[in-house]
Amino acid sequence: MTGHLRYRRSISFLIAALLCWSSFPFKSNAWALSIEDEWKMGQAFFFQVSGQYELVSDPFVCKYFNDLGHYLLAPLETKPFPFQFYIINDDTLNAFAGPGGHIFFYAGLIEAMDRVDELAAIVCHEIGHIAARHLSKRIDQSKDIGVGTMAGILAGILIGGPLAAALITGTMAAGMQAQYHFSREDERQADQLSYKYIRPSTFDSTAMITALEKIQKGSWRGTGRTPPYLLTHPTGPERMSNLESLSSNDQPLTLSQEAFYLKALFPAFRTLVVAICKEPEDAEKKFLNTLKKDPEAWLPQLGLGIVFMRENKYPEAIGVLKKARQKQPEFIPILRTLGEAYLMDGQQKKAVRVLKTALELDHGNKATLLVLGVLYEEQGKTKKALRIFKKLSYLNPVKNGVYYHLGVCYGREKQLALAHYNFGVYFKKLGRFQKAMFHFRKAKKLASENAALLEKIRKETEGVQKMEDQTKNGGSNKKGGLSCLQKKEPYPKHLKMHSRSVVPPTLSGCFPIPER
Q: CA-CA distances (angstroms) from residue 32 to 41, 99, 177, 247, 385?
């Protein structure tokens, strides 16, 4: 898919969010949506993005990116929303700030950045757009546009092909899309705020200039097209001159402890993003070329290990991960991935030893605990697995796969009310509301005398009925398209094979197994 088509699809996410929440009356003031309305829209916006794109779920990658984002938020006097930072598994040179504090970066843009300073500069710029509430003002300007018109634009953009052209012709699609471009004044203000945020971080305050120069050279991918980031964030000589003037008198600062930590870990973060998101063949070539230049380097060995895991080449993964471990014996991502490789290769005893070593270094590491729990589940050690998954369910944010495995383990233990309850939570978080309600109703029936569980079911089902009705009434099309509130499952591909093999016989006929 071309960058331009991806851009048009990303613009449609906002329109979809407007449609999903059209039943909420906007309580806007004269210049922007209310914070409450924008937060609600942000939830629908997130469902739309995560339903159309795969979000990176690797715990090290997610923690690093959110640590970076929240470190850069420190200078904000007020934070209207709880900011969240996500990485889209796509090689496009793009990033965008959605309503309600949701900031998305594409893996391709992260790969293009050579320094954490450059990535931080763009993150600060996106934070600036949210802090200045640029998007909320533009959404407010579109309130007088009919829902029918927006629906036509949405259908035209999402369907694609000749039918899309027919739907878009004669509508306000071009005007709508142009309206959501940031203006030169928006960019100027976001640049000023970006400078205000990055300077106290002690990162290089001139990094935005080099970052934009790299994005402008988007033809390095051989497409020759304008990178999508520049379509929504217009640049030019005047803007570059303004950026230079902002930092022209700056002297390098001594790195803070947090900045030092983030700079030190950036190469590992970028390596994992490339290993997880780049096409396996291309990623393998990249890491092998690095090893030709430096045969002793451990990061490309880790990258190769993850690539081999994606390709189900478990013996090869074990070989390179063992080499990486020799250089960095206490780096948790190496130990966790090696444990996964041993597990997938059927070497369960070695898997347990490696995973326990990782937990001795970091006893609360959720990703390692999850793999160990799955291993115990595979071995039939249900009580041990259940203890781990229950612990994980109390450690926020909770990975959705935890609820799936809790359902499996409770089913094996004949605690069917709890099994159905956890499957209900699992499907609710996937946006599959009909399936979620099926399990919640089963759980409610089976938990007739468990007041505490009934209260938990009541809380989980608040608002789900309305979402279920939306899904039935046009939320998804008959051709199998995704509902505007449906989302893909962010679950490790390495562990897919385990899920179907552990469905308990007592539940195997009474719930739809998720497509893994």
A: 13, 12, 18, 31, 49
CA pair distance 132, 122, nearest whole angstrom? 15
Rounded Cα gap, residues 422 and 389, in angstroms:
11
pLDDT of residue 417: 96
Scored b (16 or more CB within 10 A) or e, 178-194 reads eebebeeebbebbbebb
The three state secondary structure string of 4-57 is HHHHHHHHHHHHHHHHHCCCCCCCCCCCCCCHHHHHHHHHHHHHHHHHHCCECC
Cα 320 from Cα 328, distance rounded (Å): 12
Two tokens at 97? 């700030």
Q: Name residue 221's amino acid.
A: R
Taking only the tens place, the pLDDT of each residue in 357-403 is 999 999 989 999 999 999 999 999 999 999 999 999 998 888 889 99
pLDDT of residue 488: 39
pLDDT of residue 127: 92
Q: Sheet with 102-106: list strands edge to edge.
A: 84-88, 102-106, 95-97
Alpha helices in 413-463 (DSSP H): 416-430, 433-446, 451-461
What whole-number distance in Å separates Cα of residue 292 and Cα of residue 480?
46
* Both structure tokens of 272: 């994992």
Tell me what the mean pLDDT of segment 299-326 comes to.
Answer: 98
C-alpha–C-alpha distance, residues 26 and 46, integer Å: 19
Contact 171, 152 (CB under 8 A): yes
Residues 3/227, Cβ–Cβ less than 8 Å: yes
User: Which amino acid appears at position 214 of this protein?
Assistant: K
In this predicted model, what pLDDT tens digit does every residue of 398-451 receive, in sequence order? Answer: 888 999 999 999 999 999 999 999 999 999 988 888 899 999 999 999 998 899
Rounded to two decimals, the pTM is: 0.76
Bridge partner list, 88: 55, 106
Helices (H), 180-236: 184-201, 207-216, 228-232
Whether 172 shows a pLDDT value over 70: the answer reads no
